[in-house]
Design a protein that fits this description.
By secondary structure, the chain is an alpha+beta fold. The chain is 17% helix and 32% strand. The strands form three sheets. Strands 1, 2, 3, 4, 5 and 6 form a six-stranded mixed β-sheet that branches.
Length: 172
Amino acid sequence: MGKVTILVLLIVSLHVQKIYTSKIDLISDSRFLTEAYTLVSQTGIFKLGFFRSGNSENKYVGIWYKKISVQTVVWVANRHLPLPSASSDTLRIISPGNIVLIDETNDVVWSSNTTSSVNAIAQLDDTGNLIVKERIKEKFLWQSFDYPTDTLLPGMKLHYKDMELCRRHLSR
């Protein structure tokens, strides 16, 4: 009887883990990202989702390498406004073209501050770039590569203001 119970528990736990780590391929006005999902680039190089840094109870939305066993975060949306660990939050597209991080009280924690006259989607490409684009014309409205955090990936832009911040930080 004990072996059957263990087998059932093993099967249930594998199913729960599969549900918890489900992936989606895009974010839109009708398909959004919650803690139960991740957005994965087409060939599975990068993931975007909710994560906790180290032993912190704070929660962030970021992009990391999917196939590296040690989570290596390369971009963070809400790095200056972390979310409480127990909160229920979503990353979604609102008012066509604006990708926002909304907390459980429906307050906007982070936003791309973009708009479009048509419906937009957000996708993660294989370079690690989160792109918000018009659904039909595929015109780029916003991309994470224009807003680097601590890690530079090939194709990211380093603006003068970013270099000035680096210079000030290194001179401390």
